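Appendix C reproduces, verbatim, an entry submitted by the partner laboratory led by Prof. M.T., so that reviewers can inspect both the input and the predicted structure.
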Amino acid sequence: MENSTRITPDLIWRMLDESAVIVSPQEGQVRVLNEAGTVIWQMLADGRSRSEVSNALVERYSINPAQAEKDMKQFLLELHERGLLSLA
């Protein structure tokens, strides 16, 4: 899980009240991300690298880089397991 993270193309997502709302048409599921998840999702959607996302989390939430990296990896793995992201 080094560099390439892509949002699954068949998903529909929108911002609603400062949260990312993700709809998976194939599963018929709706997911609403929390604030940190929304930050990560938006940055990935904008084509930002994982290191850029991690750095943004450090700055925004005043956490150390190791914690930011650990939390981001866990979140990305969860999204991958749910079919929302592809990781390479």
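The chain has a mean pLDDT of 91. Additional entries are available on request from the coordinating office.
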